[in-house]
Amino acid sequence: MPSRPPATLKSASRFRPAIRLRTFRLADYEPVFALWKQTEGIGLNESDTREAIGHFLRHNPGLSVIATAGGRVVGAVLCGHDGRRGYLHHLAVARKWRRGGIGRRLVSACLDRLRAAGIPKCNLFLFASNLAGKAFWRHLGWSVRADLRLVQRGTAPAAGGARTSC
Fold first, then answer.
1. Which of the following CATH numbers is that of domain 7-139: 1.10.10.10, 3.40.630.30, 2.30.30.60, 3.90.1600.10?
2. What is the pLDDT of residue 160?
3. SS (H, E, C) the chain
């Protein structure tokens, strides 16, 4: 008889495969990118190409995590640090797998890995319009820093002089 993946009881009439967390590898890029594209509140750009994510993963080895169920990616988060602070990017859980603790487990795994690397704090970026995301992070004990504002520009030389939007 063929072996079956471990199952957990979701409801009296449905079994779901067990959720497994493991390190995000570049080979996971396609299903993770597809998940990100389907997830509201995640903005994708030139920093999210396969090449760019490969660079990120090599620069932050063993920190990013995916969740799988029955061999399929159902959650993912990018995790890295600059030597002082950790950063989480693109936390996503497939819609039908939400509200089961997967997001919390992904975040916890990243924080454990950052702590082991000697990183005392972690930051993340959240679109102001992402109210569900804001509620999720607050539920996990994260707080909004009202005293900070994100300021950003590309690394290419600025065309036309300085802007005054800060």
1. 3.40.630.30
2. 63
3. CCCCCCEEEEECCEEEECEEEEECCHHHHHHHHHHHHHCCCCCCCHHHCHHHHHHHHHHCCCCCEEEEECCEEEEEEEEEECCCEEEEEEEEECHHHCCCCHHHHHHHHHHHHHHHCCCCEEEECCCCCCHHHHHHHHHCCCCCCCCCCCCCCCCCCCCCCCCCCC
